[in-house]
Amino acid sequence: MATLPRCRNVTHVSLEISEQHRKALAELGQFSLLDAIVGRRSRRFPVGGSIPDGPLAYESTEPSRSITEVERALIISVLAGVTGWNFGITRHPGYAPNVPNYPGSAGGRTFPSAAAFHTSQLFFTDDSGTYFFGSRDAAPQRELTAEPADIESWISSTADSYRQLSSDRLVLPREEPYMEGHNTWIANWPGSLLAFPVADLSEHLVANLNFFAANGYVIYDDVHDNPVPGIEKFSSLTHFDDPVPLSFVEQYTLAEASAELATATNTGVLLLQGLGLGGWTFDGLDRLSVLGASGDPKAPGLGFSYDTDDRWAFPNATGLEGVFETLVPPFVDSVADGVQKYYQRKFGPGGPGHPDTPGPWSDTPKVRSEYLPAQNLQELVTVQAEYIYKRFGKLPGTVPTVHVLMYLQAQNLDRGFYDHKFGPGAYLPSHTRHDEVWS
Ligand SMILES: Cc1cc2nc3c(=O)[nH]c(=O)nc-3n(C[C@H](O)[C@H](O)[C@H](O)COP(=O)(O)O)c2cc1C
User: Fold this and answer.
1) Could you tell me which of 129, 197, 200, 195 has the C-alpha nearest to residue 167?
2) How far apart are the C-alpha atoms of 230 and 101, rounded to whole Å?
3) Orientation angle between helical segments 19-28 and 151-161, nearest 10 degrees
């Protein structure tokens, strides 16, 4: 296990919006979604960029330059900002009039989440440091309203919530195996913003175990071809004789979380089209190096804790103390405590299943009070989660506890590269106007 001390000092950041940027935000508001979708392209060459050889060899004539803080706040807001209350999961015939209790958070964010589990949080890095934006349990700043969103206060509240983890850009050697060879020329380049959501798959798996338990299913360990010991106690469940394979539940967990990570970053890429920034979404960075869980001192990354075990092909990152704590030791004393923490998040104060948590409905306390209660589920979920942890030495057993996949890189575009190396139309009018609008 390794936790870097540099991650313990956190400072908050406030946003100042100049008159010029107020106008730029207003102009951006006129950029159409269709233009963003049709105009989207991975534009990877920034000011300060360099390609030494080959048909696309080019040396930027301008120095690297960071994007503005307002652009950054907007991108971070679009990637993971809170936008209201989520509407929950509406109905299940198996236990109506109780409503499904799947959501992990009451809030809604810019991207959808499998059954509103919401297990991811955003990290980002640029020339000014490395940051955390923890939005998954934040209450919305405003109630439902027909009025257009107040973008300035939205992005300001996002910026108020940043936590600076370090004053350094994420240390990630620009060489293999720390990143794919095709990314070494540019990934995490000076001047760029690199932002990436990180998912807690221990929580996502527990949420899926709760989901299947609510629907009358237990799991079966198809990897070792044995039932979960003690599972007979739950034989009255509707689908007890049709258990769900453990490997399926874990693949489902990984795939669902990946869908969220990709949706969030692609929404960010759409924003870049309107802003007139270069950038793209990609996955070719070594995940353990990014998390700092590879054991290689050249890649301290985010300084996540991790475990190693002869049974596993790779180290397993488990979380970052005080910042991103998963449902497994050392962040809880036991997996049973981790499951309890999950139900507390869901049913405790501020959670989606707590009657006093505000929400979007005309009678929110009534809807929240009808959440399918945890009582009959928690014991089964605990038995299954404890079994997996014991049998595989980690939770989930067959996929990582912490999942990082998709990255958004945003940067000032070097139009000269595109003018020299591409035909007309390689960038948008928003890119042509960018420096004038956003300087
Ligand atoms: C899952 C995924 C992984 C990707 N990984 C990389 C990558 O490691 N490096 C890179 O430069 N682009 C990466 N990309 C971007 C693709 O190369 C790009 O989307 C593709 O070439 C099509 O171009 P377009 O985005 O301009 O339409 C990735 C895209 C996806 C969806």
Assistant:
1) 129
2) 25
3) 110
Check if CATH label 3.40.109.10 holds for domain 5-438: yes
Q: For ligand 1, atom 15, which residue shows the shortest CA distance?
A: 282
Q: Whose CA is nearest to atom 14 of ligand 1?
A: 282
pLDDT greater than 90 at residue 2: no
pLDDT digits (tens, 9 = 90+) for 111-163: 999 999 999 999 999 999 999 999 999 988 766 676 777 999 999 999 999 99
pTM above 0.90, yes or no: yes
Q: Name every protein residue with a CB atom under 6 angstroms from any ligand 1 atom.
A: 41-42, 44, 180, 182-183, 280, 282-284
- At 281, the amino acid letter reads T
To test the pocket of ligand 1, the residue of 182, 189, 280 to mutate (highest count of ligand atoms within 8 Å of its CB) is: 280
Q: Whose CA is nearest to atom 20 of ligand 1?
A: 42
Strands (E), 304-406: 305-307, 316-320, 324-325, 402-404
Q: Which atom of ligand 1 is nearest to the CA of 44?
A: 11
- From the CA of 328, how far away is ligand 1's center (Å)? 33
Question: Residue 167's CB: how many other CB atoms inside 10 A?
Answer: 11
Longest dimension (CA), the chain: 71
C-alpha triplet 125, 119, 74: angle, nearest 5°: 40
For a substitution probing ligand 1, which of 176, 283, 285 has the most ligand atoms within 8 Å of its CB?
283
Burial class (CB in 10 A: 0-12, 13-18, 19+), 79: buried
Taking only the tens place, the pLDDT of each residue in 273-289 is 999 999 999 999 999 99
CB atoms within 10 A of CB 220: 20
CB-based contact 71:195 (threshold 8 Å) = no
The 3-state secondary structure of 74-125 reads HHHHHHHCEEEECCCCCCCCCCCCCECCCCCCCEEECCCCHHHCCCEEEEEE
Which has the closest alpha carbon to 192: 51, 47, 355? 47
Closest-CA residue, ligand 1 atom 16, reads 282
Q: Ligand 1 centre from 281 Cα, in Å? A: 6
Classified as helix, coil or strand, 319 is strand
- Domain residue spans in the chain? 5-438
- Tell me what the pLDDT averaged over the chain comes to: 95
